[in-house]
Specification:
307 residues, alpha/beta
């Protein structure tokens, strides 16, 4: 279950058709998108996010990601629109499933693997091995690979993924994990848009990254997308539409949407930092600003953005 590049490419390639066919689409009402609940487990309660840093990340880069994760659970402690209010949308899934409650995310333990213990070219199966280093009950493991690490399928089929594995050999209990790669040098046009010109579609100027790091700010978008997918579809039988092997989930159901009036190739109407010129739609702790993807909201059966 990952962030599909096929979806992204098709999304951008539809720009001309959308712009040229607005009168037609206005006459033909599309059925509302509905992510169905498949009666499986959803993640709720207090959810530590344990991070495995694989490769070389600066202290500043780790701080940007750490502040983002911490911001998700800091209700009423940020300026509006806030990162935590974006995350609250995931709790609508719990309510819709008859399991009302909170999914409170917090930053858990961090594991540094700066010496590339498995090398600089990883198979998908090795991501699970790395995730196991920080696995714990009732938590999510986040594996982040640095810009010089090649991962099977990275840039070719996905920008990241989420999956699950047994907590230990022979146990039925599973833990959920996420992998996201830093695409700064490998494929920024695919996995760091809109902070880099897209590989396909109209070549509009890229937006200025809110934290001044195209690779990390792009990772934040993918981490956010996959966290939402993990909580609402952790084991492949939660909320999704389409085939279980390639599901459309909370964020992937709303590709390329970050603000109002978004359309293929245009991220939407966003907030602008007057001092840096950076585009963002969410405030975090410590004065951080982030660009977060739209989420499909089960309460309204529509894609919700913060701005």
């Amino acid at each position: 279950m990952g962030i599909s590049l096929v979806t992204f490419v098709v999304f951008l390639s539809l720009v001309q058709a959308c712009l040229g066919g607005r009168r037609l689409t206005a006459l033909v009402q599309q059925p509302p998108l509905v992510l169905s609940y498949h009666r499986g487990a959803l993640l709720r309660g207090t959810l530590p996010i344990n991070v495995v840093w694989y490769g070389q990340f600066s202290g500043s880069q780790r701080s940007i990601v750490g502040d983002f994760i911490a911001s998700l659970g800091q209700h009423n402690q940020e300026k509006s629109p806030s990162t935590s209010s974006w995350w609250k949308i995931t709790e609508e899934y719990l309510a819709k499933a008859g399991k009302p409650g909170a999914a409170t995310v917090l930053l858990g333990k961090q594991v540094l693997d700066e010496k590339y213990s498995l090398g600089k070219s990883l198979k998908r199966t090795q991501i699970g091995d790395l995730a196991a280093k920080a696995a714990a009950p009732n938590s999510i493991t986040l594996v982040l690979t640095s810009k010089d690490v090649a991962v099977e399928g990275f840039c070719m089929s996905s920008c990241g993924l989420h999956d699950s594995a047994p907590l230990a050999k022979g146990l039925k209990e599973k833990f959920a994990y996420i992998w996201v790669g830093n695409s700064e040098t490998q494929c920024p046009g695919q996995c760091a848009w809109p902070f880099h010109q897209p590989l396909y579609g109209p070549q509009t100027p890229p937006l200025v990254a809110p934290n001044g790091d195209v690779g990390i700010d792009g990772m934040i978008i993918n981490i956010a997308s996959l966290l939402a997918g993990t909580v609402t579809n952790p084991f492949g039988n939660g909320y999704y539409q389409g085939p279980a092997a390639a599901p459309m989930e909370a964020a992937s159901a709303c590709p390329g949407m970050y603000g109002k009036n978004a359309y293929p190739g245009y991220a939407g109407e966003l907030l602008l930092d007057s001092s840096t010129g950076a585009s963002y739609n969410a405030n975090g702790i410590n004065g951080r600003k982030y660009l977060l993807p739209a989420l499909w909201n089960p309460k309204t059966s529509s894609c919700s953005t913060l701005v």
